[in-house]
Write a structure and sequence with these properties.
This protein has 310 residues and is an alpha+beta fold. The protein is built from eight helices and 16 strands. Strands 12-11-9-6-5-16 form a six-stranded antiparallel sheet, covered by helices on one side. It has a six-stranded antiparallel sheet with strand order 7-8-13-14-15-10, covered by helices on one side. A four-stranded parallel sheet has the order 2-1-3-4, with helices on one face. The chain is globular and about 50 Å long. It starts with 8 loop residues before the first helix and ends with a strand.
C-alpha cells in the first residue's frame, strides 16, 4: 500500500541513501551542490550525518551563465577526494546537460556509487517520487523485476499513444534493467542502449529535457534513416531547445534509451527527473549512450500502448 501522508524530507533522503546506495556507517560521502539548491544539499548532508557517514558538502561556483565544463576548483576537489558515495544536487538548467555529463565522467574515476539529482525540489521528498518508505522502495523494485522478467527477450517495440506517437525501435533482445538509484527520484526500468539507428516513425512528446511541460504544444520528432530527424512544434522555443540538443554532436540523434516509469508517487511536473518515473508513461532518449555524445535528450510519452515482439 502506498502512503499519501507527507514524510520528513531528511528521513526520505536517508531511505534513498540506505536502499539505493547501501550507505553504511563510517563511509565517506561528498555532496556537490549548486547555490540555488543549498537547502537540498543540507538535507542530504543531515541525512548522511544521521546515518553515521563522514559527510562533506561542497557549494559549487555557479553564476547566471550556462556552464559548459567543470571549473578548475571543482576538478581539483573531485580528483583529490576518495569518497565512497557522491551526490550531485544541481540546479534545473536543461542547457547544462553537457556540463553534467562531463562532471559525472570525472566523478566515475573516483567512485562507483553516484546519485545524480538535477532539478530536485523539496516537495519531491515530502509527497512526490522521492517520498518513499523503505518498504515502498522494496515494493517498487519488486514490481520492476516482474515487468523486467515479462519483457525478457524483447527485440522490437511498437509504440502508439493518443497524442499521435506511432514508432518502432529495435531493442536488440537486451535485458531490461531496474534502475535502483542512478537518479533520485528513482523508479524506472530501461534498456540502454537500444539499437541506435532503429528509430522509425513519429514520436510525440509533451515533456522532456527541454524545460517546462509543453502539453498544449506537443513536440513531434520524425525518423530519418533510423535517427531523430525533422522536429515540428507549435512552440518555437520548445522546437529550438530540442534542436539544440539533437544538433550538439554526431551522436546526439542516435537512440540512447527506452524506459518505463514504475514509481507510484511520481507526478507529471516541470522537473523531468520526476516526470519520467510516472507509472503509465514511457520515455525515449536520443544521445548519450549508443554513440559518444555530450547530450542525452529524454522525451516523455503519456498513456502509451507498447506492443512487444520477441
Amino acid at each position: 500500500m502506498i502512503s499519501t501522508e507527507k514524510i520528513d524530507p531528511v528521513v526520505a533522503a536517508m531511505n534513498a541513501l540506505t536502499i539505493t546506495k547501501d550507505a553504511t556507517v563510517g563511509e565517506r560521502i561528498i555532496i556537490f551542490c549548486d547555490p540555488e539548491q543549498k537547502d537540498l544539499g543540507k538535507m542530504y548532508a543531515e541525512a548522511g550525518i544521521q546515518l553515521g557517514l563522514w559527510t562533506r558538502l561542497v557549494i559549487l561556483d555557479a553564476g547566471e551563465e550556462t556552464r559548459v565544463s567543470p571549473d578548475d576548483r571543482t576538478k581539483e576537489i573531485i580528483t583529490s577526494s576518495n569518497p565512497d558515495l557522491i551526490i550531485n544536487v544541481f540546479r534545473k538548467r536543461d542547457e547544462e546537460t553537457s556540463f553534467r555529463i562531463q562532471f559525472m565522467r570525472l566523478e566515475r574515476r573516483r567512485a562507483d556509487r553516484i546519485l545524480h539529482c538535477p532539478g530536485i525540489t523539496i516537495d519531491m521528498f515530502t509527497e512526490g517520487a522521492a517520498a518513499l518508505s523503505v518498504q515502498e522502495y522494496k515494493d517498487m523494485f519488486a514490481h520492476g523485476d516482474r515487468i523486467k522478467d515479462a519483457l525478457k527477450g524483447t527485440y522490437m517495440v511498437h509504440v502508439t499513444c493518443p497524442r499521435g506517437s506511432d514508432f518502432t525501435m529495435d531493442l536488440g533482445g537486451k535485458d531490461f534493467q531496474v534502475e535502483h538509484g542512478t537518479n533520485i527520484p528513482t523508479g524506472e526500468i530501461n534498456v540502454m542502449p537500444p539499437i541506435g539507428d532503429s528509430f522509425e516513425g513519429k514520436l510525440v512528446s509533451t515533456s522532456g529535457g527541454t524545460g517546462k511541460l509543453y502539453t498544449d504544444t506537443p513536440a513531434e520528432i520524425y525518423s530519418q534513416d533510423g535517427l531523430a530527424g525533422e522536429v515540428k512544434c507549435a512552440s518555437d522555443h520548445v522546437r529550438e531547445r530540442i534542436l539544440v540538443e539533437l544538433d550538439r554532436d554526431n551522436g546526439a540523434r542516435y537512440l540512447g534509451e527506452f524506459a518505463i516509469g514504475i514509481n507510484p508517487k511520481a507526478r507529471i511536473v516541470d522537473s523531468f527527473i520526476e516526470a519520467e518515473k510516472v507509472v503509465g508513461t514511457i520515455h525515449v532518449a536520443f544521445g548519450g549512450s549508443y554513440k559518444p555524445s555530450k547530450t542525452h535528450l529524454d522525451l516523455l510519452i503519456e498513456n502509451p500502448t507498447v506492443t512487444t515482439f520477441k
